[in-house]
Amino acid sequence: MLENGGRILTAAVGVVALVAALIYAGHGIITRPVDRAIGPDTSIVEEAEAQGDGGSPGEEGSSGGAPGSEPGQATGGSTPGGETGPGGGSGGGGGSGATYPEPEPYTETSIDIVTPSPVAVDVTLPQIAGGDPKITDTFNSRIRADLNDRITETAAGGRLTGSDGEVAHIGDNVISGVLLVTAEDDQSAVDLADTVVVGIDSGAVLTLDDLFTDTDAGLQQLAAASRTLGPSTDAGTSFNATAVTADAKLFSRWVATPDGMRIYFEEGAVAPSSYGLVELTVPWDELGDVLDPDMSAVVTS
């Protein structure tokens, strides 16, 4: 009997202990502070937003474009010196921002070429300065080469003189010049002209083939206009319209001016030699149908 009573007492004590443990645990759960739920770390996003443009790499207009993006897409922020790179993005980079000087405009200049022998030369050579060095060199070297050719053609003991050459026109897209000289010997003197026309965008010396979409058609229209306008030149009624044909050599010496295509006819070609070189300007409107549309914007500038 006592043994059974002891067992019952032991079991009762165990139940009381279990209940006490449950009560203590429940109290801890109820009274413990509830922690705030922790979501994804937003510190990187917040830092990016605080730094400026934000935006994901490659987004148009963002400062964080992917390296190698093509123009028109966002590229990697600013270039060195603080300049904004293609595709948007605000300045960053080192330095306070670089500035580059505007290229100097093209200007007319000249040099005097004087040599005593074997050909006596006293010529003012038209030149240009400033602008793109390649364009400047093309113009200057070409007109100097023309002078060298004239010196070679002049017999030893002869003279080559001239001071009327000029840079005829400096436009937005074209530069034209003419070298005017007189070659003399003991028996005669002849006036000569050499021209150069350089496209500023192409950097090339322009020819009749460049000027017209169809060179033959262009020469035909050029000849027709010249026959009509010929009497308005210094040759007047002595201008020989029948001598004007669609010959490329006849029209090979020309310059581009705002008023039109100025042609230098060789001495004796369309008028008596006593008139010397005959200058005639054909308005661009007279050639509108045969001018290459792209070239028209160049030579008329």
Number of strands: 11
What's the CATH first level of the domain at 107-199?
Alpha Beta
- pLDDT under 50 segments (min length 5)? 29-94
The largest pleated sheet is described as: 6 strands, mixed
CATH topology group of the domain at 107-199: Heat Shock Protein 90
Superfamily at the CATH H level of the domain at 107-199? Fervidobacterium nodosum Rt17-B1 like
Global geometry: flat
Instruction: Please state the CA-atom Rg, rounded to the nearest Å.
Output: 44 Å
User: What's the mean pLDDT score?
Assistant: 80
Oligomer: single chain
Percent strand: 15-25%
CATH architecture of the domain at 107-199: 2-Layer Sandwich
> How much helicity do the residues have?
25-40%
Structural class: alpha+beta
Number of helices: 6
